[in-house]
Design a protein that fits this description.
By secondary structure, this protein is α+β, with helices and mostly antiparallel strands. The chain is 52% helix and 15% strand.
Length: 273
Amino acid sequence: MDWFQRISFFYNLIRPVLDVSILAFIIYKGYDLLMKTQAAQLIKGAGFLVFVYGFAYFLKLTTLQWILNFLAPGLFIAVAIVFQPELRKIIMRLGQGEWFRLDSKPRLGQLEAVLTAAEVLSEQKRGALVVFPRNINIKNITDTGTRLNADLSSSLIVTIFAYDGPLHDGALVVQGGKIIAAGCFLPLSDQQDIRKSFGTRHRAALGMSEQSDSIVLVVSEETGAISLAYDGKLFYDLSTIEVQRKLKELLDRENRESTATPVEDGKDVFVER
């Protein structure tokens, strides 16, 4: 048996495993993407229609089959219109996401610097927005602010947010132990069921979590409450211990599977879909 035959024989052995593995990876990533964009409704709706059609086909319900076949093109268009925001988010994530990228996550000491600054700003009732990117590239957001690439420190964060400077109203972007940019503009949420008392910061934090997989820490200027926004949800008025635990969990690569689990011991959870 020559080398070509050996390679061909070995490839024929591993080909089914490789085929199934790649398909499983694509299905898993697709499911994970849908869950993170709050598009589970799409899966449930499609599954229900498939079940109804299968039920009609199995029992030979010709009238129901004819109606479903007649309505199928219209239903497809209706789904595309109703779920347009979710489909747009999915396409954006496919274009921006980097599945195999390994980002350097902030160490616990670096998270302590952010939390210390958040506590100080909370006591002073000074608003703040801090963005922690994960897998999705947010260069379009950092480009709206001022590039700093500065070492992460609580004193620098307090300085930026504690005084009415030019960077006060924007957001900080923290990645890899650095303050990448400050004064960044975040997209506002398009959700309609947000608490009326929430200001622009909370809406911006929620909007950022809807359009990316970033985690956003918010300090309220009115109440001093510290909140987290991620996966299209806002978890309001958390304790420092809760924020520290959840940030460490969400930013840890080994615990990434738990990022869709809400904070169970938070005081209030709003804007659940």
